[in-house]
Specification:
Elements: E1 2-9, E2 12-26, E3 33-41, E4 47-53, E5 57-68, E6 71-81, E7 95-98
C-alpha cells in the first residue's frame, strides 16, 4: 500500500492510495485474483473513484454516499473506460449501479 501524488479532477483534489493485493484476494483486475488498484478519496475520506483493469483499464466512480446505520457507502456507481490519457468521463458508462432499497438483516 502506497500513498501517491494527489489527483485533481473537476475542481477537487483527491488523495490517492495504490494497493497491491495478495494473489489469493479476488479483485476487479481482469476478474482474477490479486492485482493492483488505485483508490481516490475526497476531503471527507469517502471513496470517489477506483481504477483497475477489468476487460480494459477502467475508472469506477462512486456517487451519492449514504449513511446507513453507521456504514457509509456510495449508492450510485459508474464505470468508464480509462485510456492512458485519463478516464473518459464524457463517455457512455460501461456499466452502472444504483442502490436505493436496503434491508437490515440481524445475524443474532
Amino acid at each position: 500500500m502506497t500513498e501517491i501524488e494527489p489527483h485533481r479532477e473537476n475542481g477537487e483534489t483527491w488523495r490517492c492510495l495504490r494497493l497491491k493485493f495478495p494473489f489469493d484476494v479476488p479483485t476487479h483486475n481482469n476478474f482474477q485474483v490479486g492485482g493492483e488498484q488505485t483508490f481516490f478519496f475526497n476531503e471527507r475520506g469517502l471513496v470517489q473513484r477506483l481504477d483497475y483493469l477489468a476487460v480494459g483499464p477502467s475508472a469506477h466512480y462512486c456517487f451519492d454516499h449514504t449513511n446507513y446505520n453507521g456504514i457509509v457507502f456510495p449508492t450510485v456507481r459508474r464505470v468508464v473506460r480509462r485510456p492512458p490519457s485519463g478516464p473518459l468521463v464524457t463517455a457512455r458508462p460501461q456499466c452502472g449501479a444504483s442502490l436505493r432499497y436496503f434491508v437490515q438483516i440481524s445475524l443474532d
